[in-house]
Amino acid sequence: MQMKEYGRKLGKIAVAFSLFTFVGQAGIWAHEVRAETSSPSIPSSETGEYIIKMKKTASALSAKSMLSAKGASVLSVNNQRVVMKLDKASEQEALTSLSSNPSVEYIEPNIKMHTFAEIADPSYSKQWGLRAIHAAEAWAEATNTEEVTVAVLDTGVDYTHPDLANRVDTKHDYDYINGDSDAMDDNGHGTHVSGILAAELNKVGIAGTAGPIDVKLLPLKVLDDEGDGDLYHVAMAIEDAVDLGADVINLSLGGYWNEEMDGKPRTMIDAVEYAMDKGAVVIAAAGNEKADADYFIPASIPDVITVSAVNENLKLTNFSNFGDSIDIAAPGEDILSTWPGGGYVYESGTSMATPFVSGAAALLKAQNPDLDPEELTDLLLEGTTDLGAKGDDDLYGEGLLNIYQAWQDGADDVENSAPVLEKISASSKKLTLKPGAQSQLSVNAYYSDDSKKDITSEVQWDSQNERVAVVENGLVTAKGFGKTNITADFGGKTLKIPVEITVSSLKASTSRLSLKPVGTATIQIMATYGDKSTAMIDPDEIEWSSNDESVATVADGVVSAHNVGRTYITASYGGKAVKVSVTIQLTKLEASSSKLLMKPDDASLIKLSAVYGSEKEEVTEEATWKTSNDDVAEYQDGQIVTTGFGKATITATYRGKSTNISVDTTLKKLAADATKKTLKLEETYAPTLEATYRDDSEDEVTADIDWSSSNEKVATVDEEGLITAVAEGRATITAKYGGKTVRISITVTD
């Protein structure tokens, strides 16, 4: 059996609640008019309006003329009742006259009506679950409460959601899945649970079960983005949660345990017992398998408050687990709540029912901080609304959560003794700062009469290590890296507030540098502190070193390259270090052109660059140049100079790297102005030849042409290309230039 062994169920009190119930000093006064009373005392109406109840023998309509004669304005007539408004000047006279009328049964003031609590969150009307558990009634009386911390062990929480941002403790959250201190929700389940539990009453979105109290959500991410985790992390997180000050632990999760195992998991039992010993109450979902919850953990673990789910008709949902382990029921079907990214969605499950109970537990704990887990459990379970079979049953446990009844029971338990100092509480349980930062602590004293007093200026403050942090009137100033405790003493009570000034990580502006010899580069370092803030660090605050100073040195973040080679630069700050790899090595040579199409006796400028990573350096003159064919092309003073027809490769070499430049001066085409010509005897003809080069330039060729005739008896050609007709017949004149040939057919006639 779970918490049922504490001897609860001494009786249930049914509470009828209406939005028109009056609280505090408000009340309704009614005066029954009797004929023998000549001067009745009727309370004055703040509205100037009165309700007159006529006797059954009298007609309300017939009373209108009577009232008009008395100077009253009739506002409404309904059955035997009349609502009238009186002038202040004649009010008492009219009341005296009317009360003595034998047709009048009674007169009472028409008092202003108001809701128990004003809830301005726009989607509150869609939250049937809060109405079912009478949350608003408890909120109306929730004053002078203390801060309560609720640990949500789930898929994390979207701590940027506008309905949750002010209630999430992002200083102490932790991700057990990824092993870091950022419990951002990547699934949605944890954010939905958190909204049901503690969405802020802020005129935005929805309202959380905890209502107006000062509740802090401690997100501990034990489930991954698929909603999966393991027993170990859950158990560890339970223990960590109470060590971080959690008063309530919400477990909207569970797993199946086989009855063939040697008892229930001891790890989970030990964790729950640890939480109970530390004063925290553990609340868990029954599960959604419509099966016996006794086979699920943590639902079946002793001392856990196990929650089943009901629908809007207050019947067990078609998915909820049941059984002897069930302690209490709460709304769990079609529940509207927060979702990552600032949205809201409907979800169903015992996961949704559980945070209703956790929110109620937080509300009760805020009312009476001295409640131990057993007492808090008794309040929750004894204040339920009975459902199903009378008394404790396997579907609803002790019944449906009723926050208002539990709140009233808790209020009755608060002692009204003479105020004595019960405890002191600081505005922060832990400080995580960066060097030079300040944080103001305030301390409140809490007394047995529920009064609270700011005693910040009366506290005796001290720091255990002033090299780390100092404190004056609660203002903590971080001095150097490390850990210390700030102590606050008052009235025999002592608080210790841990202070950490730490760097969680360093990041360099680059992870690799490639430099040329004698080149420089600047490295910037960003620190992420324990409070998750970031800042660029002044270079002179960082300890810099080079692993090989013959290759490169560093001073205040400026890296200077000296020789070809490799090293790494180390930047150390706040106990953390980051390394930057430095390479000083020629990556490659680049020529301004890798292929040149030219003609003989031409020249083209060439530029050679040495590439070092992202940097370049011109080394045209420092390189060694060679040609594969100096009859075609060669390098001369920054130019590629061609000397003849053909192809050549120019090779440039520098610091062990080489690059090639292809040079092509071959003739692309040779053409004559005519390919056929008819001449008469002794007539001459000088053809025009045009050469097209690889660079697509064109020139008329007049020299260095090799001319020949196929039949000099018919036509001859000299070295200048002059053709002479000698005899009748045919001959072919051939011209050769640059490896190209052109032929001209000559016909000689008489």
Question: How would you characterize this protein structure?
Answer:
With 750 residues, this protein is mostly beta strands. 14% of the residues lie in helices and 36% in strands. It is built from 10 helices and 56 strands. Helix 9 packs across helix 10. The longest helix is centred in the middle third of the chain and has 18 residues, at 350-367. The radius of gyration is 48 Å and the shape is elongated. The chain starts with 30 loop residues before the first strand and ends with a strand. Mean pLDDT is 85; it is low at 1-40 and 111-120.
Head-to-tail CA distance between termini = 137 Å
Radius of gyration: 48 Å
Helix content: 10-25%
**Residue runs with pLDDT of under 50 for 5 or more positions:** 1-40, 111-120
Strand content: 35-45%
Total helical segments: 10
What is the average per-residue confidence, as pLDDT, rounded to a whole number?
85
Tell how many strands the DSSP assignment holds: 56
Helix and strand content put the structural class at mainly beta
Strand order of the largest sheet: 7-8-6-9-11-13-14
Characterize the main sheet.
Answer: 7 strands, parallel
Shape: elongated
What would the keywords be for this entry?
10 helices; mainly beta; 750 residues; disordered N terminus; seven-stranded parallel β-sheet; 56 strands
